Amino acid sequence: QVQLVESGGGLVQAGGSLRLSCAASGRTFSSYATGWFRQAPGKEREFVAYIQSGSRTSYADSVKGRFTISRDNAKNTGYLQMNSLKPEDTAVYSCAATARTYYTDSALRDAMNYAYWGQGTQVTVSS
Known about the structure:
It is a single chain. This protein is mainly beta. Helix content is 3%, strand content 50%. It is built from one helix and eleven strands. The chain has one helix spanning 105-108, and strands at 2-7, 10-13, 18-26, 33-39, 46-51, 57-59, 67-72, 77-82, 91-98, 116-117, 121-126.
């Protein structure tokens, strides 16, 4: 089992930055792939980014060049650095983890393939 707790959300003006954290407890975090997903009111949950255990990363086109996913295995923590935030980035952001790090890129972009989830943290970007 892996327990995930997100933090770092809040209210920020457009163009600002936030860094989300995802603290993991339980089994060895470094062997898991972790992803970030977001869900805005009235919309479906969407993929934001993932990082595999070998540090390979992938991003949604909507955040590429603005967001950076990373991890600190020594601290059992994952991060999502969000820069140049836009009002359309407003959503509840959730981190997720899966032990199946051999999944393909398309599989790791699918929330259904993640077994462990945090409770989510609200990010609100004002215009």
